[in-house]
Amino acid sequence: MYKDLLQKLAKGEDLNKEEYLLLIGNRESLRTDAAEAACRVRNEHYGRRVFIRGLVEFTNYCRNNCNYCGIRAANSELSRYRLTGSEITECCDIGYGLGFRTFVLQGGEDMYYTDDILAEIVRQIKKSHPDCAVTLSVGERSRESYRILREAGADRYLLRHETVNRDHYKSLHPDTMSYDNRMRCLYDLKELGYQVGCGFMVGSPGQTEDDLADELLFIRGFKPEMVGIGPFIPHHDTPYSEEKAGSAELTLFLLSLIRLTLPDVLLPATTALGTADPLGREKGIEAGANVLMPNLSPSGVRKKYMLYDNKICTGDEAAACISCLKMRISRTGCEIVTNRGDHNKNGGMINEI
Question: What's the predicted TM-score (pTM) here?
């Protein structure tokens, strides 16, 4: 019966909430079948190619106090930093030489980086590397801000929604943040023409299987170009320091369900997954993922961008990191490629870009 539900998904048919709950509740017996089906679907759309995005974590200042995040404003133990525009573009120059054709500029909600400053950084990257995509991941901003950054050349935007349960959202975030504003941001980004990524933590405090089924329904309806999920991992300087970490195995199963729900989605095997399980990124690829985000940030600041404890690859040089990843991913039967890896909107194999 449960395998029939997987086959239904693989054929492009929709499941209802109760059917998703049945799959999640019986994941132990379905894990292998789900992963195999997800990989078949992924290969139909993208082949065995894994796309890389060069991650530049350019500021660990943040105005928010999310209960789960190590760079929350109230963390007085954290050594803060900001990269200059020239430091950011230099990271991208190094990444370009290593074969990266997408750069992800990620940071806390640091209002030091005004629209003018961020827009100029985006313009400089696009001027130096016009064949590359620029992705921003800088949290909640106004629609006008998103418009300015889009017109400056930003192609993509990553903004995890974290949860579609309003009460759960409130428990994870300070009173200054709201579920409605987070959703407003996601829909503004879509309307402005960004390729949009959303996502959630697996096993965040208070999350239920019922919530996970709702996440899958939301993702199906929103139709993002990318979905980023990873297990919740506590940070020692947050209110959730003593909470139990999320399950890597559940995360892998959900990756497979997301691939089957949105066959052409770009789906990362996240650093959090690699932190929770030493082979997490490889297992993510084997569960249907097709994106990796190696770190291009200067090695001197990587340990300061600690969203959760024991984050991997904080000391690796970019060249060594990508060489290691290529070797590790080759063992899965997949291959890292260096094109932009755009979302495949039309079905079938995506062309080289």
Answer: 0.96
Beta strands in 79-225 (DSSP E): 102-107, 133-137, 156-158, 195-202
Q: Burial of 82 by CB count in 10 Å (0-12 exposed, 13-18 middle, 19+ buried)?
A: middle
Cβ(184)–Cβ(227) below 8 Å: no
Output the six-digit token pair for 148: 């300015």
- Residue 78, SS3? coil
H or E segment and range at residue 291: strand 291-292
What is the Cα–Cα distance from 93 to 90, expressed in whole angstroms? 5
Tens-place pLDDT, residues 124-146: 999 999 999 999 999 999 999 99
Distance CA 224, CA 199 (A): 9
pLDDT in tens, 51-105: 999 999 999 999 999 999 999 999 999 999 999 999 999 999 999 999 999 999 9
d(C-alpha 210, C-alpha 280), whole Å: 25
Angle value at C-alpha 297, between 64 and 52, nearest 5 degrees: 100
- Neighbour count for residue 112 (Cβ, 10 Å): 9
